[in-house]
Amino acid sequence: MSLFLISFLGLYGGLHAYILISLRTAFRLSQGVTVLLAGLMLLMVAAPILVRLAEHHGHDRLATTLAWPAYLWMGVLFLLGAALLTLDILRLTASGFTSLFNLPFPVLLSPRCTCEIALLTAISATIYGFFEARAIRTEYLSVPSAKIPAGVNRIRIVQISDVHLGLITREARLERILAAVRAAGPDILVSTGDLVDGRLSLREGDTADSRMERMLADIKAPRGKFAVSGNHEFYAGPEHALAFTRSAGFRLLQGGSYAVAPYLSITGVDDPAGPAGKEALAASEQGLLRQTPPHSFKILLKHRPLVHPASDGLFDLQLSGHTHQGQIFPFNLLVRLHYPQTSGTARTKAGSLLHVSRGSGTWGPPIRFLAPPEVTVIDLVPAGK
């Protein structure tokens, strides 16, 4: 059993246990109701694994039927756990101050009241988040550079990231994303990983998977369409995921560079979830960047928003994703522990630019809360414009 799976089961199971204890204490549940609720929670802990197993063995309808309740439950549970924990800390802190200093506290919530507020908050946030996940925002970034010739009006790059096409994100959600892409009128379209999240079958004929391929392939980008792998391409099965990406019209940059113009190059690297080691990938990344013409504007496509110290300064702009900005607040606070830049644009220590997309789709729960999905429009323009 992988470390990721053990960690997931431990954390997700622990969250269920905390909520079960809170609900039983607050509402004084009978033993029978507690056992029934515990059984349902055990099923929900196992549900994401059952979804993957059903999908892996080709039971698409069963996997989809399980996925919707399993991942909606996950979203509600995350929000409920965060609300409960926050209110419990406030309640216990207030209770401690009241006891320690013998001071009356104006509002001291009971466990029942705490649970009721947390439940209402979680359900309201889930409903809001369900619609927020479908409201694609277009974010604009203008990058002036002396490397772009004065005679060039602009080069428009449109970035999608973390679309997570699979059991839940299908044609309807993809069409919303692509509508924003078409409206931007890209010269270049890039996908910075996790385009696929599921074992797409690539069956012959007019299947949903081939329709999504065609939807992506129909997007026009005169100067090219480029993609790199994310961790979920490898989780889903790289042969299927990368074949889908190629069929969708993308040039896969798996440790390669492409000269879009004499003054512009795009380099892409695989995600560390693949078979190559992290150190080997880092060395390959630096070698590729050093091989590109020094006078060209260098774009690095890299799924995870980490800048290797030896690569910093070798590129002009790194485009990344992966973080989803936490996807469901307040989990962005946890994501920041590993990725200091969870969204937006920042200047690196060596003066390069790093842009991190919030992602265009969703992983797991089909909701976003205070982390709206984005399609990013980057305009490269000559210095002074």
Order of helices and strands: HHHHEEEHEEHEHHEEEHEEHEEE
The largest β sheet comes out as: 6 strands, mixed
Q: Give the termini distance in whole angstroms.
A: 55 Å
* Overall form: globular
Assembly state: single chain
Strands, total number:
14
Strand content: 15-25%
Structure description:
- The chain is α/β, with parallel strands linked by helices.
- 45% of the residues lie in helices and 17% in strands.
- The strands form three sheets. It has a six-stranded mixed β-sheet, with helices on one face. Strands 8-9-10-11-13-12 form a six-stranded mixed β-sheet, covered by helices on one side.
- The longest helix has 42 residues.
- It is globular.
- The termini are far apart.
Topology:
Blueprint: H1 3-27, H2 31-56, H3 60-101, H4 111-132, E1 137-145, E2 155-160, E3 165-166, H5 171-184, E4 188-192, E5 196-197, H6 208-217, E6 225-228, H7 231-236, H8 238-247, E7 251-252, E8 256-261, E9 264-268, H9 278-291, E10 297-301, E11 317-320, H10 331-335, E12 344-347, E13 353-356, E14 374-382
Parallel strand pairs: 1-14, 2-4, 3-5, 4-6, 6-7, 9-10, 10-11, 11-13
Antiparallel strand pairs: 2-14, 8-9, 12-13
